[in-house]
Amino acid sequence: MSELKAEGVRKSILNELNNLKGTAMEEGRLLDETVLKLLTDITLKLNREVLLMLDDHNVIHNVALGDVNTVAFGDAKMETTAIGLNRIRVIHTHPGGNPHLSDEDLSAAVRQRLQCMVAVGVAPDGTNRFGIGLPMVEDEALVYRYALVDSLKRLNALDVSGYAALASRELRRLPGAGFDTVDTEERALLLGVDLGTRGIGIDLASSMEELRRLVETADGRVVDVVTQSRSQIDPVFYLGKGKLREIVRLVQNADANLIVANDELNSNQIACIESLTGCKTIDRTTIILDIFARHAKTREGKLQVELAQQKYRMGHLKGLGIVLSRTGGGIGTRGPGEKKLETDRRHIRRQIDELLSRLERIDKSNALGAKQRTRNQVRTVALVGYTNSGKSTLFNRLTDSDVVMQDGLFITLDSTMRQINPEYGNYLLSDTVGFIEKLPHDLVTAFRTTLKEVDDADLLLHVVDAAGPHAQAQMAVVDEVLGSIGAGHQDILVVYNKIDLLDEEGALALQNRAEREGAVCISAREGLGIDSLTAAISTHLGGGTCTRQFLIPYTHSKALAALHQKAEVTQMDYVEAGTQVTAITDQDFPSHRFEAYALTEEDHGTGLPDNS
Ligand SMILES: Nc1nc2c(ncn2[C@@H]2O[C@H](COP(=O)(O)OP(=O)(O)OP(=O)(O)O)[C@@H](O)[C@H]2O)c(=O)[nH]1
Ligand SMILES: [Mg+2]
User: Fold this and answer.
1) Ligand 1: does its nearest atom lie under 6 Å from the Cβ of 409?
2) For the chain, which residues make up each domain, given as ranges?
3) Average pLDDT, integer, range 232-257
4) CATH class of the domain whose range is 378-542
5) Ligand 1 pocket, 297 CB below 6 A?
6) How far is the CA of 417 from the centre of ligand 2 (A)?
7) pLDDT greater than 50 at residue 53
8) Mean pLDDT calculated for residue range 313-330
9) Which residues pair with 523 in a beta bridge?
10) 185-291 adopts what CATH topology?
């Protein structure tokens, strides 16, 4: 760091400024009162701009006199990066009191990819107002939007790190920007915290193993796993700061380019970990969203993922917008940029609303289908279960279809509903998204249609990977998610799958247990136990009989006779078109044989058979 020298400036003033170098602002503030007072005094005395360069921990690295264009940025001690923002913040004064950032100020900020650019207006009476430019990525370009702030307290309340982290991440995602394009392989270091209270019984080791599988499903490679026992998650660094130092070394040794935390991180934690390790940092939710985004196939599925992603972004802007919208107080403070800061959130909210209304339109057309089904009294069965438990494999076996099954997590996202193979029964089966521990809540609610089918189903088949080491804990997670979406009130049949992987002893023990619990054991892949499963499904569905109406033309007397045999006829009315029959049917009733005669509610009284 070179000493500050300036012609015609008193030595004592230069000393005061030089002494600032290497000092940090009070309690990690962007600007503290002592330094503000010093800057104000010197600006008034010299009638010149004074400029400070800080790092992202608000340690002052350099001091200069003159405007932003004549001052050289950059310092050996201040890290600059090839992509994303540099970890540099600039604060400078404007003699005369004007707090607006000039075009020169803003273009210097873009050039230097600053975390923020602050202008301190120093009025002749020594009072201050502030303008702050914060980074944002718009139309694939870095821009700075500014807000005017009328008190130091409000300036310090701004979450500069949060904005910088968001902009950095978006810069890196730009085509040709870095991580994802230049360095295609993602080498991930996983971080986890053991709080000792995982509640539903998934221990940290398994939870980390699952995170590993998530990363692999997203095509990343795991190079190392670091965990720490703590009483709580560190609000700033996630793990302890000491542990993170160790991680800096690990990142270098293992040449990792991605850090993945097992719990959800806020924007501040992401900024802190990224700035300490120099490594792109994401959390479990982001990985899950990424996998969901890749696997969603239908228009609806894609919309739902996008919705969840927008909500996630919105959550990470929380706090920022609220503070910023308060800064525009009165005439003269409403700069064009300041409006933009508020609209950033509004923009996301509008996108969310747009997505919601598009989903609603799709929902309505789906609802029509559902209504059709209830009118026809077709029973529905939904497959639920932990991800990778074998739901799609079973679905394909029971429906003779070819829904993608694959070893990986969240292979099925969009629910599929099919008629069951008639030899197995007469009902519709739907395959649904798998559940997982810490499934982001927004994603759960986002997959409304899938879950609606779960909710509407007459019976849920809870498919369990009985050969996996965590069957019990996974079952608990599924029960919990079902409870949280308000489903699970209906009949549930537990299906222990993958018994082909168990040894004889294990299979026998499971069989005994299943008998006690009224569950069934199968191998969906090998086709074992399918008959007892279908029998159990019929028994469960048979729990409820239903009353239906038929209209049988007078010329179809055989059909009327057959109906008397297969169902309990409770009433017969002779109308012009034929005999109108009310009958109670049970699970063995061959609906398909009487489909042509079935009356729907709306048909009542019209005398017309359904499907005619
Ligand atoms: N050994 C064995 N493997 C099975 C069996 N059933 C499914 N699998 C395998 O388990 C993996 C996951 O099966 P899927 O049917 O895709 O599981 P899923 O529950 O639909 O998974 P998601 O859609 O990701 O929630 C695949 O590799 C299947 O081949 C089984 O009975 N035995
Ligand atoms: Mg599946």
Assistant:
1) yes
2) 11-173, 185-291, 296-372, 378-542, 546-597
3) 87
4) alpha beta
5) no
6) 13
7) yes
8) 43
9) 528
10) Rossmann fold (3.40.50)
